Amino acid sequence: MIETYSIWNLHGEQVDHASSSNAPRVDNVEPIVDPNDQVMGIIQDAFPFASTNINQEGEDDMPTPIDSAEFEQYEKLLKNANQELYPGCASFSVLTAIVELMHGKIKYRMSNLCFDYFLGVFKRMLPTDNCLPKDHKHAQKVLHGLGLGYENIHACKNNCMLFYKEHETLDTCPICNESRFKMTSQNKTTKIPQKVMRYLPLKPTLQRLYMSTHTATDMRWHKEKRVDDDVMRHPADGEAWKEFDRTFPDFAADPRNVRLGLATDGFNPYGVLNQHHSTWPIFAFPYNLPPWKCMKKEYMMMTVLITEDPGFMDKRCSHVR
């Protein structure tokens, strides 16, 4: 038990003084893992079929077919994972260095400009023949093969529609006739979109939960390991979950089917300095996972990022499919 834990005695929680005083203290010590091994594990999880094809060369079993473009991405990542950061560097490969730096950028909320500055400093510190990317943009290109990218989808200035699928080739909104692109001072149309919705594909993220050995078992926790004793510990203990199972028994029969929670809220990233701009992220939460994981930030999936004026908030969800 964490020493700073507060007992919620006003909510009925009781303290077991005998067990708490005699319980031995166990320090939470994380095992030391080679970062290069971790990165290789990530690649194997992201491309299980590609690694299987390579391992099965010379064997009688027929390898699993894989798309050529996907296999090319796998080979690029594998090359960066095996390439030394600079000649003689045994501690970091190119891919390991990028993953470590990008992890620190996200963890400590570093801006892209700040990241570019320090990346340039590190590159000058290393030997001149190092392979470290020169900026954040080039680092992202290396990680793109891991499925960490996003898709830009143009939207109508008035939030009438998305220029997507059957509307992808249109230059004006068929509802309000507003131009898809911005206008220059000479009234000439440029190819700069008036509004962009950033879509982070949800399907590959969910597939990744089943590709990894660490989370594949936990995705069945709600059915196989949950204690059903009428105590509310998880959404699966709620009546809404149980009613859904009764209504859709075929879906409920397979515990691997994904249950998601959806959350969204708007905020102004510029505070009171600009009241005409707001940002709406849309998050998905995998409720298959146990309660100590499903609401952790590591498993929060941002699927859509919308920026729009406050006057159009009531339309934000009706046109997102």
Automatic annotation (TrEMBL):
Database matches in Pfam families: Transposase_21 (PF02992)
Protein name, per record: Transposase-associated domain-containing protein
Species the sequence originates in: Prunus dulcis (Almond)
